[in-house]
Structures are given as C-alpha cells and as structure tokens.
Amino acid sequence: MCAVMKLAFHVLLIDDNPDCNFIMREFIRMVDDGITVSQVESAKQAEDLLAGSGDFPEVIFVDINMPITDGQIS
After folding, report:
1. Residue 68 — left, alpha, or beta (φ > 0 → left; ψ -120 to 50 → alpha)?
2. 51 against 54, higher pLDDT
3. For 15-38, how does the pLDDT look when each residue is reduced to its tens digit (9 = 90+)?
4. Are 60 and 10 in contact (CB under 8 A)?
C-alpha cells in the first residue's frame, strides 16, 4: 500500500487583483479540493490575518507588483 503525503493543508493568496485570486483558488481546488485557501488583497491584510491566527499556511503566493507594499525586496 502506498501512502500519499499531503504537501499543503492551507494556502494563502496575496494579490490586489481579485480575478487572479479567483483563478489561483480554482487551480488549487482542481489539484485538491481539501486544501483551505485564504485570500487577501494587500500586504496589510495578510499581516493582520497572520497575526490574528494560529493556523499558518504552508504555502503563500504573493503578487510582487502591488501598490503601497509589494513583495519586492529592496
């Protein structure tokens, strides 16, 4: 018997474009509809979500070209 290990239980999407978040969420659900997908539209919302939660995602997808605070390292 072969055991399959689940790579992620929770994924966080950070993108200011709701359409991109929708498409990514649907791709993730196509792979495994048991994965919890959280989505936010700014870095500030992501900070608030992670600060107020003990359930940290295993995977975070970040848009690196957002207004105000982006994912680029300067």
Report:
1. left
2. 51
3. 999 999 999 999 999 988 899 999
4. no
